[in-house]
Amino acid sequence: MNPNLTTDRPTFVTHLECSLTGERYEADQLHGLSQAGRPLLVRYDLASIRAVAPRAMITARPTDLWRWRELLPVRRTQDIVSLGEIETPLVPIPKSGGPNVLVKDEGRLPTGSFKARGLVMAVAMAKALGVRKIAMPTNGNAGAALAAYATRCGIETIVFCPDDTPEINVREIAAQGARVYRVNGLIDDCGAIVGKGAAEGLWFDFSTLKEPYRIEGKKTMGLELAAQFGWKLPQAIFYPTGGGTGLIGMWKAFAEMEALGWIGAERPKMFAIQSSGCAPIVRAYEAGEEHAERWEDAHTVAAGIRVPRAVGDFLILRAVRESGGRAMAVGDPAILQAVEDAALKDGLLMCPEGGATLAAYREALRLGLVDEDETAVLFNCATGLKYPMADASKTLDRHGEIDLASL
Q1: Does residue 1 have a pLDDT over 50?
Q2: What is the mean pLDDT of residues 212-229?
Q3: pLDDT of 403 strictly over 90
Q4: Over the stretch 108-162, which tens digit does the pLDDT of each residue have?
Q5: In whole angstroms, what is the distance from residue 262 CA to residue 248 CA?
Q6: DSSP element (H, E) containing 105
Q7: Within 156-290, where are the H helices?
Q8: Parallel, antiparallel, or unpaired: how do β-strands 133-137 and 156-162 relate?
Q9: What share of the chain is helix, strand, coil (3-state, %, to 5)?
Q10: 364 near 377, Cβ under 8 Å?
Q11: In the predicted model, what is the mean pLDDT of residues 165-176?
């Protein structure tokens, strides 16, 4: 067994803090949103971590998600829930992307998507805080990750998804022990049902950013990137953005690592990538707004980023602007072309949301927002095997003679 999961270590959470007002909340208590209706952020005693967990010690540990234990909220080893959360690889795509383009392939994680990072942490903390029943809206992959981890530790789970959620996702959620319902609407309509049930005391609301700990799991993407780049950071990050938890988490991770002395002050340009059929963050960015209004009639082949309204909108926009990056939208044809190119030219089967980052990188290159010589990391947030693919097979006549030379 991995020693990271069996060895108790000191933990360093001091409190939680409203991301909008800075109001302080007690740690080790069950919280949802702050009084201001905004996400809570976990804060740590970084000075103490710096004294007991030098970078060299972290580097020497097995490369899994739990190597970062001092910077995670789970206090007791017995509350850790795990399905084997590995460090995901950086895969070059020189033919479809370019000589300095790397894909962080999150499809290698349990349940096949980066949702495993956030949900393993959120579920572990729910277990630690005594939660027995959870509900969540999902476009697919988050529900699958929640079902897997909650089932593993005996928490009852109910999942609501839009009625056009891919069938494979719906079946995956059910197969891993959750009750799953289709809703005639989008993910925020599903979220309204979850919120109503939570208000009536039926369950705890696990919607994106409505509990504090999914960010802490997702921030491990930023911690991993720093370690993989020799404690530097790439010059640009292209991140598929719906609720934006991972982008927010990485930005938080960078600040914490700088405070620990593990990295310097340099930051990547953060590109928040959306579909032109659902681009509330892009619209707010271009208008100079701090918050994003709901996007009506949301539609895109990239279901994971079809989020009409994000509760952490201002945190996404803040990270993008502070980094010198941009919020960008790409159309479905460009997304599908990028998925096809990465598969045919580089052998990497990306999900549509991952394809959106490649399409956006190409557009950013064309506009001069990034340079070909700069190192860019694109996030492929799930395995492409979960998504519909065109039938490209050819049929041979088994009963006649086959001219193999013609094949």
Answers
A1: no
A2: 98
A3: no
A4: 999 999 999 999 999 999 999 999 999 999 999 999 999 999 999 999 999 999 9
A5: 19
A6: strand 101-105
A7: 167-175, 187-199, 214-218, 220-228, 245-260, 280-287
A8: parallel
A9: 40, 15, 40
A10: no
A11: 93
Q: Output the pLDDT for position 4.
A: 59
Residue pair 85/117 in contact (Cβ under 8 Å)? The answer is yes
Closest to 104 (Cα-Cα) out of 122, 92, 115: 92
Burial bucket for residue 132 (CB in 10 Å: 0-12, 13-18, 19+): exposed
Provide the mean pLDDT of the chain: 94
Sign of the CA dihedral running 139, 145, 149, 152: positive
> What's residue 46's pLDDT?
97
Helical H segments across 243-351, by residue range: 245-260, 280-287, 313-323, 332-346
User: What's the rounded Cα separation, in Å, for the pair 270 and 294?
Assistant: 22
**Which of 85, 91, 81 lies closest to 63, judged by CA?**
85
Model confidence at 392, pLDDT cuts 50, 70, 90, reads confident
Pick from 234, 238, 79: which is nearest to 152 by CA? 79
Note whether 311 and 209 are within 8 A (CB).
Answer: yes
Spatial separation of the C-alpha atoms in residues 208 and 196, rounded to whole Å: 15
Output DSSP code: residue 350: B
Whole-angstrom CA distances from 258 to 58, 222, 382 are 15, 12, 29
Contact 376, 238 (CB under 8 A): yes
The tens digit of pLDDT for each residue in 326-377 reads: 999 999 999 999 999 999 999 999 999 999 999 999 999 999 999 999 999 9
Distances (CA, A) of 42 to 73, 305, 336, 386: 8, 25, 37, 33
How far from 325 is each of 20, 317, 322, 370, CA to CA, in Å?
22, 10, 8, 9
Q: Are 160 and 138 in contact (CB under 8 A)?
A: yes
Question: In angstroms, rounded to a whole number, what is the distance separating the alpha carbons of residues 118 and 128?
Answer: 16
- What's the distance, CA 49 to chain centroid? 25
What tokens does 137 get? 């809206």
